[in-house]
Amino acid sequence: MTSGKVTLRGGQAWSGRLRRNQHLVLTDVEGRACVSALFYNARDPLERYNMADTLKAQFTAFLTTGRVLYSDMGRVLCSVVADGCGWHDTITGVGDAAANEARFGAGGYQKLRNERHRNARDNLLVELGKHGLGKRDLVANLNFFVRVGVGEDGSLAWVSGNSHPGAAVDLRFEMDTLVVLSNTPHPLDPALAYRPPTIDLIVADGPAAPQDDRCRLSRPENGRGFALTEAYIAETCGEETDR
Description:
It is a single chain. This protein is an alpha+beta fold. The chain has 6 helices and 14 strands. 41% of the residues are buried. The model has no long low-confidence stretch (mean pLDDT 94).
C-alpha cells in the first residue's frame, strides 16, 4: 500500500495490504473510539491473527507498546512500536445488527441513508469479501482504544476513559499483511447514541526491526517468532534478513 493518510468516518470500514516494514498509525481523534481489527497474511490469508497465541506467548490479556500480534503459524504479523493509549482489548469481539438495533433503535438505510447504523460484524464481512474471504474467515479480533475489565466471576465490564483525544497506536508490519478495520461502537460501550467518532489512519514506510528492537526482546517467545517470520520471508520472497 502506498504511503498516505486516510480519514475513517464514524461507521466506516477500511481494508488494505500493508507491506513488510510499513507502519500503520491509528489516531483516536476524539478520545472515545473503538476500531475493530482483523489481520491476515496478505500472501496466504489462511494464515491469520491468533488471539490465543498472541496472549499466552506474551503472558498478557491486552496489547500495548512492546507487544506483537502472532499468526496461527507462530509468526509475527505486526508489532506495537508506540502507543499513546496503553490498553487495547483482545477478548470481547464485535457487535452485530441485532445488538445495534436493540441498543440504538432502528437505524436502517431507508430512514437514515448514509448515516445508517453500521455494525462491526457486517462491516468486516463486507471488507473481507473484497479480498475473496467470508464468514468462515472471521476470527477473534482486536479492538483498538478499548479496555474491558474482567471480574472474579468472569463478568466483563466497560472501562470508561481508557483513551483520550489524540491517542495513537503505531503498528510496524513484519510481513505483508491484509488489515481489515471497522470504526463502529463496541458491544459493551454503554453510550445510547450512535455516533462513532472519526479515526485518522497514516501509512508510512520504515526500516526493518533491528536486533535490539523492544518488541523482539520483550519476551523470549517473541525472538523465536521474529526468527520464524524472517525465515519465512527469506524462503517465500527471496529477501535477505539479518537473523
